[in-house]
Amino acid sequence: MEPSGKSPCPRWLNSTVLGIGLASLLSDWSHEIATTAMPAFLATMGVAAAWVGLIEGVSDGLSSFAKLASGHWTDRLPRRKPIMVIGYLVTALGTAGFGLATTAWHVLLARATAWLGRGTRTPVRKALLAAAVTRKTYGRAFGFERMMDTLGAIVGPATAFFLLNALGHDYARLFFWTLVPGLAAVAAIVFLVKEKQRTRVASVSFRDGLRQLPVRYRKFLVAVGLFGAGDFAHTLLILLAAQSLSPTLGTTGAASAAVGLYVAHNVFYAGFALLAGWLADRVSKPKLLAAGYGLATLMALAIVALPLGPWVLAGVFILGGVYVAIEETLEDSFCAELVGEEQHGMAFGVLATVNGVGDFLSSVIVGALWSAFGISVAFSYSAVLFATGAFLVLRAGSAEDAKKASG
């Protein structure tokens, strides 16, 4: 029996949710240290800039494949937690493996290994998170995890800056230090995450697993895919700010201001992730997700239509942080609501893969349009896809509301 007094913390914030949140923070802290230092480390090898793109592209591709495969198989296993532990451990070891690299190929191998582990654990983590709470608290649980993950993205670069100076730019030692938060993330999963007993789902082929996903989930996936095709990497916003501010602040001043704006972007992302989750448990998830997509549309239109001075750029970065917080929190919590728990692994794996493909395509297309036709064409392309995604999410939500009302 539960005690009659009130619990000192919300019921959704249980040991499993806390453990997953801490693991996200610590693991992101670990690999953000390496990500921040990686370009400068490669530069010491005399490596061309194309290597950075190759390393990221191969790693992201493997990660997307791993998400899809892991999502399919995790629903068929009696226990998911061991896969999650292995995924976090592989990510920690792969990231620290940068310290053994003497050529760009070694960095590629280490990064690909780390991202393979990261992809494997993603749908498992989301399935365990959804299983740890009730449907009424999906939003808060996923919002908390996103907030913790983003805090790691804020602390990681700052730690890299400190370690580089403290260690005299000894990159090997810096990369080995990533083991501290990386292994702490593994410990958080081992000791805090409690997996509920579940019935193993009958084994089916990958194709049959896809076919068994509900039609309403597939419609949601179309909206996510179209939005994602315009949702460029926000490192492009850093480039935009640096170029726009350089005439008045100079190259060095503009670069510093751009980094500062990106820090603000991440602060708003972290802050609004939990708020978005709280709102998601109280209002229509499709409408709130559509509102997030709408903020992305406003951001893109502001870039196209307004003079890109300091205040406009500050607004652009803030809108960017807020809409990503809403987007990522609501996509995960709405996905968990649309699909039965026995299919959560598959659903989260497919969602993560669609987002991964969208991230790759959108950044390539927006970058190419920017280079060929300028800022207006590039970000108008994004605005159209953002607005289309918002419309389709609203349609999916209206159909679902009508179905509930008739039932």
From TrEMBL:
* Entry keyword Transmembrane: yes
**CDD domains linked to this entry:** MFS_MJ1317_like
- Enumerate the Pfam families for this protein: MFS_1
Major facilitator superfamily (MFS) profile domain location: 16-401
| One of the record's GO molecular function terms | transmembrane transporter activity
Keywords noted in UniProt: Membrane, Transmembrane, Transmembrane helix
Q: Give the residue spans that cross the bilayer.
A: 36-55, 85-108, 174-193, 220-242, 254-279, 291-324, 368-394
The protein depicted here goes by the name Major facilitator superfamily (MFS) profile domain-containing protein
